[in-house]
Write a structure and sequence with these properties.
- This protein is α+β, with helices and mostly antiparallel strands.
- The chain folds into four domains: 300 residues, Glycosidases (TIM Barrel, Alpha-Beta Barrel), CATH 3.20.20; 74 residues, Golgi alpha-mannosidase II (Immunoglobulin-like, Sandwich); 75 residues; 141 residues, Jelly Rolls.
- Helices cover 17% and strands 30% of the residues.
- The chain contains ten helices and 35 strands.
- A hairpin with a 2-residue loop joins strand 29 and strand 30.
- The radius of gyration is 29 Å and the shape is flat.
- The structure holds ligand FHN.
- The site of ligand FHN has 7 residues, from loops.
Length: 654
């Protein structure tokens, strides 16, 4: 036990301040991912199967002693870090993220913490040092990928299901200390590092407090560093989201995010892989991602000799050719202000729009959706300025330019607008649950301050003669509001509609209030959903001050009910945020406000409740099957931020 306490104590618990240098990352839009390690030696083949990748130790069920033999064969004599960095730069990439240690635990640098590292191989030299030097020499930002999951370390848990290596004696806190010490090495010995890209965060042993401690360790070492969201269990925390092998349909608005993707089927090199994405697909993915405000981290899996596979080199060169002409439509751009057209994608840079054409429209016109501007100039990237005509077609602009010799990947028309984009989109309502007690004021917003919003309160369609929106609209009875955007007295958007319902609000509970606290009832058992608690016999009850659970020592196979009276000082609409791992549910006065049931990792769900002043019966249900166990309830009122509910607002039922 002492070892665990010492190990836990050794891990930084201070709260250093993160000061992420993210502007360069947002400008970059495009980076290289590199998955390289011992798995490049078998190159996907083990036994009869030829489809393995970087997971070959696990997918091939290779016992550690057999896997360790790959270290004796790893001698990348043709590895040239500068060549890799130059290929990344020539492809238009601005940063490079390389696996320092993947799930197999093998370290590409000479670590003081283990001999399961590069010095174990005939090659011996520090690969991270060479990569860092080459990146700096070529103006690339540097990223370290580092796996939390470690199939080699004796204290990592859980074991692989197929292996007979005993788990007895393994101490996960000792492994966490090892992990922190290695992260210290790679963030201390190689100068300024720009990104740390954690992975392998999904196993039950890695819980929320561990992610917070690791994040604090990292930013304590390099406050400017960017940390991805996989530092935290359930991909919570960090500075940017990491959708993998997919491009979110509408991006992740309001978030920094990066899609990571392979060129072939696997991240690590597979010599038999014939399933490679075409250059056109890769370029169009880059355009799609940039048009949604994200970054593209495109992976290369180098071979064991230290060379990139020819198919990767070919694609990088072709991407580079396209970026040489069209890179300004990607680098330094932000998401399309007017959505996604049929013919391709749109990116923005100030008052310039880049019309990225995947195909030349059959109409002969490039129809730009929902835009109210005039166009002052047009040029076809790679061909220079062109004459153009722009005619209005309802909310859209029909742009005609000389048809370019289309680039098979994509051709780009850059247009300069007569000012900031005037976006024709339907007004958004800040309805805060669409209900109110007594009276309220309804705020509306639009994507451009250049358009007017006109609205009605009688259910009729708004016209330019309808009241013009200038401030939140006072409402004192149930009302249907219809609103649309107008520009130069013409309606230029669909009509948005909402009903704001006047409600009495839940009446205060008549139950007698006891002392401060809530009753927490515990039920032991295997659950994969919230049970019918009425049918169960409690295993324990206790009075608690808050709706929370000991995250550092999660209980498994258990369910809880927290019950008490919540003090509400003023009548109004309250929004509740219920965060849990696994499932949970919030009831107020017996009504379900948030249903977040299900076997899921840490995530949040919200719901609204109209409450009169007084005490209300609150019940939070929760279950945890295995791994991390989290329950947290926050609330906010309109215009506020979610805050934890302080203990003195809860009362026991008398
Ligand atoms: O298991 C890893 C996988 O090998 C690869 O490293 C990808 C890259 O993001 N991440 C994990 C799968 O989500």
């Amino acid at each position: 036990m002492v070892s665990a306490l010492l190990a836990a104590a050794a891990i930084a618990t201070t709260q250093p301040q993160s000061n992420p240098d993210i502007d360069w990352w947002r400008e970059a839009r495009f980076g290289m991912f590199i998955h390289w390690g011992l798995y490049a030696v078998p190159a996907g083949e083990w036994g009869e199967r030829k489809t393995h990748g970087e997971w070959i130790m696990s997918s091939g069920q290779i016992p550690i002693p057999d896997y360790e033999k790959f270290a004796d064969q790893f001698n990348p004599t043709e590895f040239d870090a500068n060549e890799w960095a130059e290929m990344a730069v020539d492809a238009g990439m601005k940063y490079l993220v390389i696996t320092t240690k993947h799930h197999d635990g093998f370290c590409l640098w000479p670590s003081e913490q283990t001999d399961w590292d590069i010095e174990r191989t005939p090659y011996k030299k520090d690969i991270l040092k060479q990569i860092a030097d080459a990146c700096r020499a070529n103006g690339l930002k540097i990223g370290w990928y580092h796996s939390i999951m470690d199939w080699h370390h004796p204290d990592y848990l859980p074991r692989r299901g197929w292996e007979d290596r005993p788990a007895e004696g393994a101490d996960f806190n000792l492994y966490r200390s090892y992990l922190h010490n290695q992260v210290k090495e790679i963030l201390t010995n190689y100068g300024k590092i720009d990104v740390i890209w954690f992975d392998g965060e999904w196993e039950a042993t890695w819980i929320a407090p561990h992610g917070r401690e690791l994040f604090n360790e990292v930013v304590g070492l390099q406050p400017q560093i960017l940390v991805n969201n996989r530092v935290g269990a359930g991909r919570s925390g960090g500075h940017f989201g990491t959708p993998e092998q997919r491009i979110p349909e509408t991006g992740l608005p309001g978030e920094d995010w990066e899609t990571c993707m392979t060129m072939g089927r696997t991240w690590g090199y597979n010599k038999s892989d014939e399933n490679w994405k075409s250059t056109q697909t890769l370029i169009r993915n880059l355009c799609d991602i940039a048009s949604k405000g994200g970054n593209y981290l495109l992976n290369v899996g180098p071979m064991a000799n230290g060379l990139f596979p020819d198919l990767a080199v070919e694609r990088l060169e072709e991407i580079g050719d396209w970026m040489d002409t069209n890179g300004e439509a990607i680098h330094g751009t932000t998401a399309s202000p007017v959505g996604k057209p049929e013919w391709g994608r749109i990116t923005r840079k100030g008052n310039d729009l880049y019309l990225i054409l995947f195909e030349w429209p059959k109409t002969g016109f490039v129809e730009i959706p929902n835009l109210g501007n005039g166009i002052t100039s047009a040029e076809i990237l790679g061909h220079g300025p062109v004459g153009f005509a722009a005619n209005r077609h309802g909310p859209n602009i029909l742009l005609s330019v000389p048809k370019p010799r289309m680039n098979e990947n994509a051709s780009v028309i850059k247009i300069t607008l007569d000012g900031a984009p005037i976006v024709y989109s339907a007004p958004q309502f800040d309805s805060f649950g669409g209900q109110f007690i007594g009276s309220t004021r309804l705020a509306l917003s639009t994507a451009s301050d250049q358009v007017e919003v006109h609205y009605t309160l009688d259910g009729s369609a708004p016209t330019a003669a309808s009241p013009k929106y200038s401030a939140p609209i006072p409402i004192s009875r149930t009302t249907t509001i219809k609103a649309a955007s107008f520009h130069r007295n013409r309606r230029v958007s669909e009509t948005a509609e909402i009903q704001m319902a006047k409600v009495p609000g839940f009446a205060p509970s008549t139950l007698t209030a006891g002392g401060i606290g809530l009753l927490k009832t515990t039920y032991k058992g295997k659950f994969d959903r919230l049970p019918d608690f009425g049918s169960l016999t409690p295993d324990d009850t206790e009075v608690v001050k808050l709706i929370t659970l000991p995250e550092a020592t999660p209980e498994e196979n258990v369910a809880h009910v927290f019950k008490g009276l919540l003090q509400v000082d003023s009548a109004g609409i309250y929004e509740f945020e219920l965060t849990s791992d696994d499932g949970s549910k919030l009831l107020i006065d017996g009504q379900v406000i948030v249903d977040h049931d299900g076997n899921h990792s840490t995530s949040a769900k919200t719901g609204f409740a109209p409450l009169q002043a007084g005490r209300h019966l609150v019940e939070v249900q929760h279950f945890n099957s295995a791994g991390g166990s989290v329950i947290e309830l926050k609330q906010r009122t309109k215009g506020g931020t979610f805050e934890s509910i302080s203990a003195e607002l809860f009362r026991l039922i008398g």
